[in-house]
Amino acid sequence: MQGLVVAHVLTFNSESTILACLNSLLQQNGLELGLNYEVWISDNNSLDRTREVINSNFSGQIKVLHNTKNLGFSRAHNEAISRAINLGAEYFFVANPDLILEADALISMITAINENPRAGCCSPKILRADQRMQPVRPSTIDAAGMYFTKNMRHFDRGSGQLDYGQFDNMEYVSGGTGAALLLKRDFILDSSISYGSYYELFDDTFFAYREDADLAWRALWLGWRCVYQPRALAYHQRRVLPDNRAQLPPELNSYSVRNRFLMQFKNATLAANYHCIFPTMFRNLLVIAGVLICERSSLPGLAKAVALLPQMLDKRQHYRSKRRESSLTVSRHFSTVPYHKPILTETKLDQRLESLAIIVVSYQSGDRLRSCLRQLNSALAVLKKRLPVKIAIVDNDKQSQIVDELEKQYVDNTELVFYRPGENLGFAGAICYARSRLGADSYLILNPDVIIDAQTILELIRCLDKYDNLAIISPLLMGTDGLFQRSYTLRRLPSIRMLMAEIFLLNRLFPHHRLARLRFYEDDQLIDDYLYNRFPHVNEPYEHREQPLVVEQPAGACMLIKDSLFNSIGCFSEEFWPAWFEDVDLCKRAKEAGYLSAITRKVKAVHEGGYSRKVIRDSVFYQHYYGNMFRYVKKHETFSHYILFRFLAAVGLFFKSVVVLLLSDIPKIISAQKGDHLSFASFRLWQLIFAPIKGIKKQNS
């Protein structure tokens, strides 16, 4: 680790706790006091014996900054932050005087934040401490990161819960409490307003209360993440809680009221917080009514919030030009369920995949299968040096001349097997059929129109070996023209809004609209930089170039999957026959079970794309594609949402069918074999929309 680490404690009448706090900071492992680690104190003109305790016990060990008046939380920390930044500090730890750290806490947080270039701050696992600064028994959570609610309140995650290991995974959270928060230099520089050598990170206007939530909200817009590190343990003597508001000083309650509105003025937007409008309006009216009726001492806070509106709007405008995150991503942090997102965690033990099975599902694949198999066969010699490999071709076509020829050609290859079940099992059914006969601990699922080499496969294996919570990994897919296939490589799991945009052709009519760009992560600047190898400006967040990029749905045409995932959640679901949405369903179930899916930019595979559309009639495709879309929505959404979706989809598909007819050549429609387009626009569409979906009967063709 390089660079100076500064731990800064802000005191105000803190004589009862400061001794234990400073002792814990001075005893941090992995840091050398006076060399790459310094402990600072800013005292806000304490009226008790705080300064005397500090001077008599820690003379020469810490740097003391005496303020002649109470500067508040924001200004006092900002002055120390500015000094540290100007001295070249790389990390700055904000600590309350009623907090103690375990000996490995700081180095654990520094390690976590240093491994992730998008991590701007790190929050430890904070447990409650009693009046003697000893851990409360049984262990009780004080904070496991911060989260926002739909009425724009913020809370400490898990506060007051007994600790039974429910927060023992390192995760991304919405923010961290200012009682204990590690900040990275780049984050400070990017998230501050600079006034010469002074950096306003925490908003000076806030003075105290909610300044940490304001910073967390701002960081979301700027694309920074907050890492929650449970291996870093802290203990906090909690004094301010929502339940004891009546016992708090009136001045503090007034700041709380005022800063609630200031925070909204600065950070809320209609696009990101449209779902918060009514809950927030109700809460704001409740706060105003409470002040007018019950807590009149906070009236100055309301008045001050109105007076400071122009100043907040100026700061809002300053940060608006730097926003890197999409409104959708920010909106997800305001929910009834506390936001948290898993992080790739490296495997602690030397656990490596022991066997690999490559499954290629073929249906009227033609020479595509020949080319795919030729490349796989040439890769075998390299792959077998790492682990045992089997290649399985599952032929879903009853009579396939190309498969007959390949069986004869590779008759002596013991690593290659052909399965011919005699019926069309569908994509999911074919994979499950082969898996039940192969018994490997990893499966590379390939479309026959994919060309992949040994080094790409080995890199995918290395990724699954390295990260124990990574279950699905795909390479970047490149077209036969050499261009990157974004729409095939990565997708978000489809929401009802995304599906409706597709059905109503909004993604084609308005390709730059926010809804159209969401599906393929086109709204995320930092993911764009990762995919196209663009490097950020200095002090900006970016995705780690050497690590896989966690996405919701990687390329279904080429994905390496741990068998442990299948053992946990089941194989591909055969209800999505013959194809489409079975890979979406698998990724959805994997995510819900806590597994991660990712792509890696370090390797690529060549993918033709869309060949299955070329071998089936339009009417058959539309019937199965939209039928499986409805099944997916019915399986993963509430029943009321499903019914609403069916109704809206009926309107949208009718509109789409009319567009198809208007843009088609009428004579060709009439003369087309079996009237496929006309059939789609009438009978099949009507059947699809209004007939109960009980499963489309398998039709072997």
Brief overview:
The chain is an alpha/beta fold. The strands form five sheets. Strands 1, 2, 3, 4, 5, 6, 7, 10, 11, 14 and 15 form an eleven-stranded mixed sheet that branches. Strands 16, 17, 18, 19, 20, 21, 23, 25 and 26 form a nine-stranded mixed sheet that branches. The chain has a two-stranded antiparallel ribbon with strand order 8-9.
Radius of gyration: 29 Å
* Tally of strands: 26
Globular, elongated, flat, extended or rod-shaped: what is the shape?
Answer: elongated
Low-confidence stretches: 666-684, 691-701
What percent of residues adopt helix (DSSP H or I)?
A: 40-55%
Largest sheet: 11 strands, mixed
Beta-sheet strand percentage?
15-25%
Look at the structure and give the mean pLDDT: 89
Counting helices, strands and paired strands, the structural category is alpha/beta
How far do the termini sit from each other?
63 Å
Total helix count?
A: 28
Molecular structure report:
The chain is an alpha/beta fold and 701 residues long. It contains 28 helices and 26 strands. The strands form five sheets. Strands 1, 2, 3, 4, 5, 6, 7, 10, 11, 14 and 15 form an eleven-stranded mixed β-sheet that branches. Strands 16, 17, 18, 19, 20, 21, 23, 25 and 26 form a nine-stranded mixed β-sheet that branches. The protein has a two-stranded antiparallel sheet with strand order 8-9. The N and C termini lie far apart (63 Å).
Ordered list of secondary-structure elements with their pairings:
Elements: E1 4-11, H1 18-26, E2 37-43, H2 50-58, E3 63-66, H3 72-86, E4 89-95, E5 99-101, H4 105-114, E6 119-128, E7 141-143, E8 146-148, E9 154-156, E10 171-173, E11 180-184, H5 185-191, E12 193-195, E13 198-200, H6 211-222, E14 225-236, H7 250-267, H8 270-273, H9 277-293, H10 299-307, H11 309-320, H12 327-331, E15 340-342, E16 356-362, H13 367-383, E17 389-395, H14 401-409, E18 416-419, H15 426-438, E19 442-446, E20 450-451, H16 454-466, E21 470-478, H17 486-489, E22 490-491, H18 496-503, H19 506-509, H20 514-518, H21 525-531, E23 549-551, E24 553-554, E25 558-562, H22 563-569, H23 582-592, E26 596-607, H24 611-614, H25 618-636, H26 639-662, H27 666-671, H28 676-690
Parallel strand pairs: 1-2, 1-4, 2-3, 6-14, 16-17, 16-19, 17-18, 21-26
Antiparallel strand pairs: 4-11, 5-14, 6-7, 6-11, 8-9, 10-14, 10-15, 12-13, 19-25, 20-26, 21-25, 22-24, 23-26
